[in-house]
Design brief:
heterotrimer, A mainly alpha, B alpha/beta, C alpha/beta, B: alpha/beta, 2 domains, two-stranded antiparallel ribbon, 11 helices, 12 strands, 24% strand, binds adenosine-5'-triphosphate, binds magnesium ion
């Protein structure tokens, strides 16, 4: 049996030798994940705000739907997106299947409900807390939303980190719509799945360790941003 | 906000910006996992200027994806299913491209004594008789279809013992091998996947050589009349190259640990 | 009664609010939550100037009444008439909610919401900081201030919009004697400048010091409203008598 020690030395070896394949795979992982999460923040954040602060019929139901979508199995997302993007599907003309763009879309679909649901929770808590005060200060609706969004930064950052974590670790959906094609759509997680199926467990685990290190780095970096923001806000 | 939008736009254009001519090959996993493509495709790409993008899935899923027109070439190992695919009009023509064989692997101590079996039926019977665990793909792949046919020939009803000594993983060859190794169980695999498999532990080849274990790979270009979007010109270049002397000798030249994994047999 | 007017800012409840030229008129104000009547027909007429003390036991509905007058709670019935100049009351909450920002940013935020032109904001900010005696803490996180300092900050934040009607909900409940007299001084000065003040307090001595008139609220109704001396010398209703007598026992 291959040991954990093998995994660590494999991971270490890959990093120090600057393995070009590793860098390619890591680069694509980061690109896909950041693009998907950025899009999800642009859509999920405002959606969460509307659900938290807006008043319209069906808001309650929509909130439940968004929360429930957090539990979407990635494989189902991948399958649905495959059927949509397939040459025999409705969106064949875009020729997106087996491209990084398809993987971005898959992760976008998986991550948006998470960001929307967490944003909604954070913003509705804040809206309860600040609502009367802001009305007493005669804030307009736009000013209220702007103030709440600004005050919600730590919570929104948490939502973003949750989305990043989910997207970065996701394998089922990107495997189906990306196809794990060497040099084209192979990312960290699909490489790990491939190495596992080749029985190269030390390599798979080594890649897993690198994934963990990257995830740690991203979280630390964003938390650092948050720290300086707080310092600035509190002067 | 603006920076986010910009970075999205940037990365989208970056992902869109690509590539010269390419084809998508819907392939069985064994050819990809064993490293064959990594060995021969650079030569094809250099000669033709066409990039071959391999999507490695089970034979069943590969056939399905190709039926949805999501591939230009099909390379799998389930002859009757392939012939049906062509008969239905999805493929232009099926060609034998190479072969290897199936083997039964298991723990080195070989509790069911497969080493002594004179043919595949006897080997399977002794597994069932001793009640030793056998792990099956259970995923309708080419290997799984072959394995089921062998049980039938041996006259053993696996359904009756499904969940008992007969275990279906419902996953790929690699995952099934990992499961067999972890459980100390027997399983059937194609030789190429086994030779390239890294997690053998104490498992060994315990039965091989029966002519019924022959494993033929076929190649098919997807029919442009059914799937107008296919890159049929480049697909044909790929099929022709695989069947050509250059392609065939590249396949034959690929070895792992000194052993040849695939034997070219195009007409 | 004058013409009904729509109060021109979003989200503020305009129903039942009209504009008068001669003081504040609360008529038959009714409010319920979860089928529970909380304000049960409040009637109250107040002068357009001076300090009115609003007193009454815990849970009487004083805070709710202030919120209705401030326009942040929508009554379920009745009406509130306000003089034209007092259409935008400022409210200092019993439990002030400050933004998670510095003292300075809290005030700048309020000045911005009050539509104070950007150029004038630094000057106004300095004034307000002096008023609250928080100049030294201006860069401190607002939520790290002591309870009394937070109360003072909330008070001057309410003044950022230069309101003509100031609603104070127990503004000195958690202040030390010095800060209390500072707030009282500020209240007096504000009232002298012509700003109407409605002050909720449980501190009867404070009501005596500041109020021109006293309204007594009990279980969602105003049971007594009279000049301050009259009220404290000779409370008419049983509720007010009981309230004042226990007050005397607690604070000899
Ligand atoms: N949102 C609400 N839902 C239900 N009941 C409420 C709500 N808000 C206030 N109440 C109830 O209304 C009553 C009056 O509350 P209010 O805060 O006006 O009391 P108060 O006179 O200000 O008392 P205190 O002197 O303790 O501040 C209380 O019994 C309170 O529990
Ligand atoms: Mg109160």
């Amino acid at each position: 049996m291959q040991t954990f020690a093998d995994s660590f030395s494999t991971a270490f070896g890959l990093i120090v030798t600057g393995d070009p394949i590793l860098y390619e795979v890591v680069g694509l992982s980061l690109q896909v994940t950041f693009s998907a999460v950025a899009m999800a923040v642009l859509v999920g954040g405002p959606l969460g705000a509307i659900l938290a602060i807006g008043r319209f019929p069906g808001r309650g139901i929509l909130s439940v739907v968004v929360s429930a979508l957090m539990g979407l199995p990635p494989v189902v997302v991948g399958l649905g997106l495959y059927m949509a993007l397939s040459q025999s599907g409705p969106f064949a003309v875009f020729e997106l299947l087996y491209t990084p763009m398809a993987m971005i879309l898959a992760q976008f679909i998986i991550v948006t409900p998470i960001i929307a649901a967490i944003s909604r929770q954070v913003l509705s808590d804040l809206s309860l807390e600040y609502g009367e005060t802001l009305r007493a200060l005669r804030a307009t609706r736009a000013q209220t939303i702007a103030t709440l969004l600004w005050e919600a930064r730590p919570g929104l950052l948490t939502a973003t980190l949750a989305g990043l974590g989910r997207a970065f670790a996701e394998v089922g959906a990107v495997m189906i719509v990306g196809g794990n094609i060497n040099h084209v759509t192979r990312v960290m997680t699909t490489s790990i799945a491939l190495e596992t199926s080749k029985g190269e467990l030390a390599m798979a685990m080594g890649l897993g360790i690198i994934l963990l290190i990257l995830s740690f780095g991203i979280n630390a970096a964003l938390m650092g941003v948050r720290g300086t923001q707080r310092a600035r806000a509190y002067g | 906000m603006r920076t986010i939008a910009l970075s999205v736009a940037f990365s989208l254009t970056a992902t869109m910006a690509c590539c010269g001519p390419f084809i998508v090959v819907q392939s069985t996993t064994s050819t990809a996992n064993s490293g064959l493509y990594d060995a021969i495709l650079p030569q094809f790409e250099a000669e033709s200027g066409i990039e071959a993008r391999v999507v490695a899935v089970g034979t069943g899923q590969a056939l399905n994806n190709a039926r949805n027109c999501d591939g230009d070439v099909l390379l799998v190992h389930a002859k009757s299913a392939e012939e049906q695919f062509v008969a239905e009009g999805y493929g232009t023509e099926r060609f034998d491209v190479m072969y290897n064989d199936f083997i039964i692997v298991g723990p080195g101590v070989d509790p069911a004594h497969l080493n002594d079996a004179e043919n595949a039926s006897v080997a399977l019977s002794s597994i069932s008789a001793t009640g030793e665990t056998f792990v099956s793909r259970g995923d309708e792949s080419g290997t799984h279809q072959k394995e089921r046919a062998l049980w039938e020939v041996a006259g053993i009803d696996t359904e009756e013992n499904n969940g008992d000594w007969y275990r279906e993983t419902g996953s790929g060859m690699g995952a099934t091998l990992n499961a067999a190794v972890a459980m100390g169980a027997y399983t059937m695999t194609d030789r190429a996947t086994w030779l390239a498999f890294g997690n053998r532990n104490t498992h060994e080849i315990l039965f091989e050589g029966d002519p019924v274990l022959f494993n033929q790979y076929g190649i098919i270009a997807v029919n442009p009349e059914v799937c107008p979007n296919v890159r049929s010109e480049q697909a044909q270049v790929f099929v022709d190259w695989m069947l050509s002397d250059a392609g065939q000798s590249a396949i034959g030249a690929y070895t792992r640990d000194g052993e040849q994994l695939f034997f070219p047999n195009a007409d | 009664m004058a013409e009904p007017r729509i109060i021109p800012f979003p989200d503020h409840d305009t129903q039942g609010k009209t504009v008068t030229s001669d003081g504040i008129k609360v008529q038959n104000l009714y409010l319920e939550r979860d089928g529970q009547p909380l304000l049960r027909g409040v009637n109250l007429g107040l002068n357009a100037t001076g300090v009115t003390a609003l007193i009454g036991p815990n849970g009487a509905g004083k805070s709710l009444l202030l919120k209705c007058i401030a326009g942040i709670l929508q009554p379920d019935g009745g009406s509130i008439d306000l003089p034209e100049t007092q259409r935008f009351p400022a409210l200092v909450f019993q439990k002030p909610v400050l933004l998670r920002r510095s003292v300075r940013s809290n005030l700048l935020h309020a000045l911005k919401l009050a539509k104070v032109p950007r150029k004038l904001r630094p000057g106004r900010l300095a004034e307000l900081l002096v008023l609250a005696d928080l100049t030294r803490q201006s860069e401190a996180p607002a939520r790290a201030l002591s309870g009394g300092e937070q109360q003072r900050l909330a008070m001057v934040r309410a003044l950022a919009a230069k309101p003509q009607l100031l609603l104070l909900d127990e503004p000195t409940a958690s202040l030390d004697p010095a800060a209390t007299s500072a707030i009282e001084e500020l209240t007096k000065r504000t009232a002298h400048a012509g700003v109407k003040v409605i002050l909720v307090t449980h501190n009867c001595a404070q009501a005596r010091r500041l109020a021109d008139d006293v309204a007594f609220l009990s279980r969602g109704q105003v049971t007594e409203h009279s000049a301050a001396e009259t009220f404290f010398a000779d409370p008419k209703s049983d509720g007010a008598r009981a309230y004042l007598s226990s007050e005397l026992i607690l604070q000899p």
